[in-house]
Queue: 2 jobs
Job 1
Amino acid sequence: MKIIVCLKQVPKNDSILRINDQGNWIQDRDLTYEINESDAYGLEAALQLKEKQGGEVIALSLGPARVQSVIKEALARGADRGIHLEDPAFDKLDAYGIAAVISAAAKAEGFDLLLTGLQSDDYGFAQTGVIAAELLGLPHATIVMDVQPGDGSLRVKRELENGYFQWVSMPAPAVLTIQSGINTLRYATLKGIMGAKKKEIKKLDVTALGIDKAALAPRMEFLRVYVPQKSKQTQFIEGSPAEIAASLMEKLRNEARVF
Amino acid sequence: MSAIDLDFFRLDNQLSDEEKLSRQTVRDFVRERVNPIIAECYEQGRFPKELIPEIADLGLLGMTIPEEYGCAGVNSVVYGLTTQELEAGDSGLRSFVSVQSSLCMYPIYAFGSEEQKRKWLPEMAAGKVIGCFGLTEANSGSDPGSMRTRAKKVKDGWLLNGSKAWITNGTIADIAIVWAKTDDDTIRGFIVEKGTPGYTAPEVKHKLSLRASVTSELFFQDCLIPEESILPESKGLKSPLMCLTQARYGIAWGAIGAAISCFETAAEYAKQRVQFNKPIAAFQLTQEKLVRMYTEICKAQLLCLQIGRMKDAGQLQPAHVSMAKMNNVAIARECAQIARTILGGNGITGDYPIMRHMCNLESVYTYEGTNEVHMLVLGKHITGIEAFA
Ligand SMILES: Cc1cc2nc3c(=O)[nH]c(=O)nc-3n(C[C@H](O)[C@H](O)[C@H](O)COP(=O)(O)OP(=O)(O)OC[C@H]3O[C@@H](n4cnc5c(N)ncnc54)[C@H](O)[C@@H]3O)c2cc1C
């Protein structure tokens, strides 16, 4: 089974977060980075499938030179080779643009499974995998918790609301977006880290992928990023217990609208 | 939510992806596997032996030794960074890795025969054979040249008599690297296997420091050591001292881990704890304490990265390591004491790691060359005059 796992590099959640001068994103000079959480579970799912079924795991990441570190981490954990999609034209892509580039690269590579995380910890769009599937004309499933490959088909377990799960059968190749926490992540061992140095990382740019730059023009733009303003107020309700209760109910119903 | 900037001088920019990733692996391991159990281990006076297979799987045992012996073959900076993360968990765990790697695997690698290397190193890297290092004796600490343990040449090998004191891992060790004087008073190293008749290794109990680490005495009574168990290239006191230089290098890094753990705990606490209607971090006296710790930690980090790079470039001298071990352990010990005051009464409990680090660092301050001994090494470096005796 040939599995491509998409790995996004995102700011670590204990990074120092400051808003940039333009006020439209966070200052990147203060940031340290890591693999997007659900992507890491996607990688682990891929590695476990490979251990059971044999095949190949390819770690793919789009972004500037620094994202090579997430590819190397994947290689250290056991991925066989890497694909790094890097081009100045990829600098400010929206979810559609990212999906367009990823799907072009995945198509050129060929695969049985394309895995992404459910959503990224920075933008949180939860769209990249789904759009990529549409662009590739392939079936997809989201919020996937378990993958059972069959002959030319897949059974996958999806998470629904309220603790419900759903099993879906679909033909392969397919695109799956993986939920966090579905397996136990392995550590990158020191031997794995040293071994990763010998594995191939293929670099592809716009030209190599044969992508029309114009098609990547963002359809969406960040206007403003801000820290939520605190608007906590305390009100003291006076009166007899019955009056207080009535007044509280009225406020909960009409002001807080919790019912 | 925003964390304290522990990379003030952007040293991460000087690290390779492999170096950062190795550090991250051990940091995650310590957070997930060590921190949840270590306070209890410490209280019970128990070394968490169950972690050995995992530590071995991560590749931490003998990590700088080449791959052909089953090791990871990483550079010295990785050794330092991972040691730092381990000691942020507990000095006992770091001691285990230091002893196994620098004091047992290193001498076999540096002074052993090819046969000894092939026999022991892969098993030790896999954590299946645990080692200990016996140099110190009850009456021979800072002055190891005064040791009384003797190895007498006999027909089938060597007859070992004497005892060793304060030996980390002793009771759980499958092999001991024992240093003894031979008939011509030359110090040589021997691999003594557990089960050798006449060899016992009782544990030292009631320690109030390094409680999550095994410390033992070793006794040798007419132990017959076969000829193939002497380390052929070991000759004189210089050999064990070379091992100590390796381990001390790791300790210099490790101490930063303990210091950071204390500092972070105190800084977080100071921001939360309110007295006189203000977080105690808002008082100048508290800020002075935080700044003192922070400054010393940042300086220690700079020192360690530089000695790491020098070690990898083959330029490191024992005196450099002396300065780093002396300075970094001393500042870690100070940080623990300062950090403890910031937590007030809470600081003395096992709910926070500070007091545990503080007690551990008392051993770290003394073993692997006391602070005073390293001072004298540097005194000699400056003046050319030996002031040891
Ligand atoms: C928990 C623990 C684990 C250990 N693990 C090991 C191990 O695995 N293997 C091993 O071989 N050893 C081990 N040691 C022993 C350790 O290395 C010694 O304790 C250390 O070398 C100091 O020796 P000592 O305790 O005999 O003190 P001493 O040498 O008696 O020193 C006592 C004091 O006198 C000072 N002093 C001594 N000489 C001088 C001088 N010339 N000038 C000025 N001051 C001086 C010292 O600095 C110290 O302050 C361990 C010790 C501890 C506490």
Job 2
Amino acid sequence: MTAFRLNGDAAQFDDGDRDTPLLYVLRSPAVGDMTAKLGCAREECGACRVLVDSEPAYACTLPAGAVEGRHVETAAGLDTPVRRALVESNATQCGYCLPGIVVAAQALFRTNPKPSRAEIADALDRQLCRCGSHPRVLGALLDLGGE
Amino acid sequence: MKPLPHALAATPSLDRWIRLTGEGGVIAFTGKVDIGQGILTALGTIVAEELDVARRRVRVVSAHTGHTPNEGVTAGSMSIETSGAALRQASAWARRLLLQRAAARLALAADNLTVADGEIRGEGVNEPLTYWDLADQPFDFEICDRTPEKAPSTYRLVGRDGQRRTDILAKASDPAFVHDSDAELHARVVRPPSLRHRLTELDVDVAAPGRLVVDGSFVAVAHPVEFEAARLARRVAGRARWHGIGSPPRGFDIDESRRETAEAFPLRNGVPSPVPRRRIATTHRAAYSRPFLMHASLAPSAAVAVWHDGALAIECSSQGIEPLRHVIARVLGIDADAIEIRHVSGAGCYGHNGADDAALDAALVARELPGHRVLMKWSREDEHGFEPLGPAMHVEMGASVDAKGGIGAWTHDVYGFTHVTRPSPRAPGVDLLAARFLAEPFEPTPARPALGPEVGIHRNAAPIYSFPDQEVTKHFVPDAPVRTSALRGLGAQGNVFAIESFMDELAQAAGVDPADFRRRHLQRDVRALAVLEAVLDSCGGLAGNRGLGLARYKNRQCCAAVVAEVSVDQETARIRVPRLWIAADAGRVIDPDGLTNQLEGGAVQALSWCLKESVSFDAEGAVTSRDWSSYPILRFNEVPRVETVLLDHPELDPLGAGEATVGPTSGALANAVFAATGIRVRDLPMTPERLREAAAR
Ligand code: FES
Ligand code: FES
């Protein structure tokens, strides 16, 4: 078994899955975290993003073996001011892009707790949203940094 | 008195709409579905308001055949107007019946009772009764006429700021989408190169626990492990050989020969009519176009199906589970009552995308693998490659300007392919993707012109303005080179883009301020004038690099005015939109934040269409923009700051607004680009190449 930490808890998967993209392993019954989404499977939409030791990563392409012994965080585990700000200000429409946005925004706020609007937009630039929720995502995160 | 809401007349049993639960809750049932517009939250607020209970007590159950009222398709920004009106009236009846029961128990007149959060009080009543004390008998009641509803002036929930969507936390932290369903088998379809390819040969062995399903040219695989299913699909795809049938499409443009052979339907009282088109002399003419567009949902389509003892259970994100059930039944040759469909959230779809097709795909696999819960998912490449596209449009405008600088005559000729191919039990063909590939195929319905008011190609072709003389004509082009269907706003986006661009061109020719020019032709349309003034107030005026756009969706729903501000890079010719202002009148506002979210979402999507989007094809008719690099959409560092003003009319009925801003935003953008550069871009999208081409003309 390959061991890693998931949202603070011990987790593991079969060694035979080390080459499988992390996203499929996270979403498999063995691990069962469905928050990271598949949008494109080619690092183009950001829906699958997770944090690996606080760095954002594309779970759709990252081989699961690469997280051995490391800490993976998904939006499910990020009950943080960032996630609360987005949820409480209704900063989404369909919500499919939201877990990836939570992850990318969390990565930014860990290093820069008072980002400017431009810094937030840059940090989220790999995250696609088709519903046009961008203005209020930016607004919610800007308010968070300003308080 | 107003008639009963249509949906309530169709399903008059009160129990089908409202029930009390033992635990102090209320369940409201709707046939409409949430596609990211927050409709379930808004409907729950309407119910809580009318029943006088706290918002948290109300849970809304959405579209599930046999369980919720049949409310057809969730489309056209109609849910708040139809399901909202039905639930409001049903709640008013529930409240009235509960008060009658209380009055009998307390031996008081119902008129002397008051309710707060489901607690009923009256003179001399020490221990209040609650709704739930009275819930021992169901509402065995058929609604056949209206009961009075609460006066909007007494509202404590509807219209208030600070309402929260009930579904968002789960979407950030739990399995919440059909894609997240548990499954015994994960399935993938192996698609042909294009719609006109059929299977020649498939030479492949699939070992258990993998499964291969082949029915004619419909090829699918399944595997208990999701990643293995995806791998298996790739391996089988590599072994399949296909051949083309029929002839490739003759081009993708609405060119002169397509325009000449189109069927013309001049609008008479807003309805396309088979009468000769009146020729009106015009002095100013211009033509506008948009390309084929994608819905491009962030999630590839998905659905769950289980086949058990001749019955089929489906979970999917279709916007129309009731019609879908009948169409799938026809393809499978079973009774529609043997199919149960439950709506489960998908990603935003903005119209008719692949969600319905995925349900049939899942059903076809489940039928071959009975007893297993099958989760079918499309790949990104197939989502981009096989979803029904938003049709291309070509619009020719003409006008003559009178001596006073006003418009004397106006012509609008819109040419295009059908926007209306949702699966329907009434259609002669089967409009689900897989059906045409089966060993016993079902062909899609031959394209027909939609002739109702404000549908498809001619939605918003009639201008919001009044002119002394006008002729507006729908031109239906039958030979769509690809599969097309409803995309947010249908024809409204292309028509309003053309109308609002042309209005600015005419204002410029007449030497009149664009806002004044519009005021002049809005006559006594006070609601349109009000949104126009509101957006101008909000932005402080049209000076500089700003442009204006205005329309009333379907000429009877939400009225929206938009001002866009642009900057155009001299070197790269790239257009940026730093700011956008919206003013809208959607009648009574249920949830200001939710309404704003819808208006802004529509505006951002329209900017994306207008600045970046265009589907590309190869000569065979296959879509070649199969990923997000070849079909780019607007990104976080490209979206404007948006300020939105709502003009609330508590005394009026609420109007849907999810599609109201797509047209006005498109016009505002084109007019802002002209204001900034002096270049008039009439063909979308306004890419740097297009801008340079237009400048060179
Ligand atoms: S799914 Fe990984 S970036 Fe799109
Ligand atoms: S909210 Fe739907 S994709 Fe972002």
